[in-house]
Amino acid sequence: MLRTLNARLLFSYIIVILVCLALTGIGIFLFVRTSPLWLQMGIQRLEGAERETMRILLQEGPLGNISRERLHDLLGQAARAEAARILLLDAQGVALFDSGGEWVGVDLAIAQSRPLPVARIQGVFRAPDGRRWLYVGQVLPGAEGRNDILVFAAPPALSMLLVWFAQNLLPAILQAGLVALVLSIFLAWLVTRSISRPLKRVAGAARAIARGDLEQRAPVSGPQEICDLAQAFNHMAGRVADTHQAQRDFIANVSHELKTPLTSVQGFSQAILDGTVEEKEAVRRSAQVIYDEAERMRRMVEALLGLARFDAGQVDIQRAPVDLTALLTRSVERMIPQAEAAGNVLQLAVEEGLIVTGDADWLTQVLVNLLDNAIRHTRNGRIEVAGKRQGKWLEIAVTDTGQGIPAEHIPRVFERFYQADGARRHQGGVGLGLSIVREVIQLHGGTVAVESVVGLGSRFTVRLPLREESGDGKRAG
Asked: Is the dihedral of CA 268, 272, 273, 278 positive or negative?
């Protein structure tokens, strides 16, 4: 019954409303009970019983003509009917009759400050057992010209207040509470509907994506929290769609990258087997092509395995001090022959004492991949490598004067095997170098970004956290 969020919210609202109504009624009751009002209400109730009793007595004729026995009988009946204690006192306050049968002959000490006859008396007296009683009374002509006092008494008990409360206030509270309950339930239904409907739409969008509709998005509506949920869901759905597309592109690109060397290997090996290539030099060239393509496939497989290890979290990054100044110097010296072969000038500008915490081998791989990428796309140009401090960061920039990357392709240059006309950054390579750069830098707690203008060149910027120095002047590990 309460399995849905809508039902649970509605039920909780109803419970809260009922509790509030109950507390309101209890509050009103306690307010009346602690105020002098409820004593006055007790007096009013006794006055009502007095009037009804006097009406019955007057039906018997003149009060002075009613016999003592008949009077006692009528007063006993009235006491039972009105749920009050009726007393008949003499002028000195001694009980001549008690409907309760306990106080006959007892002086109840109902003081008479005024000589009889008096019109009316009322107040509080203390019974022989010590209890306080409310009373109202009037002079009743007695037999043989005596003036007796007819008293109606009741203890100021909670039951009396409950009776008055139930008769006077409770019906109004219940009516107002019923109206408030109906309106509150309606408003609660509107609120729960405004919450549950957007959630149902988000759930529907999730089911649609699970069926393969990756373009499905959840409407952003409802309370702020639901809007935040829908926006987060849509962001996730966009990432899922991008990942799905990247997987399709990845499979297509891997297939393409493997097809070319496999075709070359198959073609040249078939030519050797068929005897088409007979000259020794031609056989050597064919074997060299087969070797080069096999080496290219080997590098591709190793790169793919490395990325798979990154994805699985199985790459161990060493955490040791690394002198980036020396590492940059060695990497640039290593790539100078390749740069000169392409007619490029390779320059280095690096500050001294650049220390980071990381893995020297992987960071070397990052620099080699960036330099190789720049050299492949720059002909007869200039490539600059700069390293400097930027606050708490170490910034490495590799700038080339090559062909540049179109703006629409820049967001995807770090994707695996990504290629586009005029924007492919891995000509002659396996197309995974920049992907490896991003994975390694992220594991080191850094970032990598690219800026490029077609025809002017590109700049790849790596930011790594500098190694902090301890208080004793040594660098912390």
From this structure: positive
Q: Encoding tokens for residue 211?
A: 């069926």
What pLDDT, on the 0 to 100 scale, is given for residue 156?
61
Task: Express as a percent the part of the chain with pLDDT over 90.
Answer: 11
- 198-217 b/e with 16+ CB inside 10 Å = b? bbebbeebeebbeeeebebb
CB proximity list for 93: less than 8 A, separation 6 or greater? 107, 108, 109, 110, 111, 112, 149
- Give the predicted TM-score (pTM) of the model: 0.47
In tens, the pLDDT along 268-278 reads 888 888 777 77
Q: Is 66 exposed, middle or buried (0-12, 13-18, 19+ CB in 10 A)?
A: buried
| Between residues 54 and 471, the one the model is more confident about | 54
**Cα gap 224→390, rounded to integer Å:** 39
> Any residues with CB less than 8 A from the CB of 72 and at least 6 apart, and which?
88, 97
To which CATH superfamily is domain 36-168 assigned?
Answer: PAS domain (3.30.450.20)
Identify which of 354, 353, 355, 357 has the alpha carbon closest to the alpha carbon of residue 317.
Answer: 357
Q: Write down the pLDDT at residue 471.
A: 39
166's tokens = 């139930």
Indicate the pLDDT class of residue 144, thresholds 50, 70 and 90. low
Strand 382-390 with 447-453, pairing:
unpaired
Residue ranges per structural domain of the chain: 36-168, 224-312, 320-465
Q: What percent of the chain has pLDDT over 70?
A: 82
> Given 3.40.50.10330, 3.40.50.2300, 3.30.565.10, 3.40.50.1820, which CATH number is that of 320-465?
3.30.565.10
